[in-house]
Amino acid sequence: MTEFWVYFTARPLLWIVLTLAVFMFSREINRRLGGSSLFHPVLISMAILIVLLVATDTSYQTYFEGAQFIHFLLGPATVALAVPLYAYFDRIRENWLPILVAVLVGSPFAVISATIIAWAMGAERETMLTMAPKSVTSPIAIGIVEKIGGYPSMAAGIVLVTGMIGCVLAPWVFRLCRIKDAAARGFAMGLAAHGFGTAQALSMGALIGAFAGLAMAVNGLVTAFVLPLLVSLVSV
Known about the structure:
The chain is mostly helical. It has 2 domains: 72 residues, no CATH class; 154 residues, no CATH class. Helices cover 84% and strands 0% of the residues. The chain has 12 helices and no strands.
């Protein structure tokens, strides 16, 4: 049995199957708990998979070789968000100015706040650079971090944690600030919590999901262009 497990863990198919099975299991747990954001399916899946990797002494590289196809699909899934955006294009066009202002304020604030906090806690330069694109969806954040000199694997984890926290806190923040407009809620979730926020917004309605997808895409685009430029200027 031990020899069989050693052989099977070396096969890429194992980890993609386990990842999908764990996520389906986590979704069922979340459903039974009333869809609480505190028990987000991705959070539960992360915990289970980490335990499995540690228990089986499996390296991240081995796991990623099997699960990288899911990582590849993040790109097409992000592009597919253009479908709900098209359905609400007229409303997006009507609100282009507040959308532009929100991105120009929210995107730099996310980068600057994360970097300052990391610096204040004594983080090294590479860690600060890794923290900078925390509010950008995973494929873009990893690409940015690779370009500016951070830790790509660490960036993926930080992005997931950021999205999880955003999903948990968003309903409380909306109630506290009395934000009832669906478009504003969606845009805020997509801007602050990227893919996590967009997925949760889509489950709440097409309009809120469309604006969340717009915020996630525009924030990723702005950060991908501006952040490497800023880093290069500061390093001069």
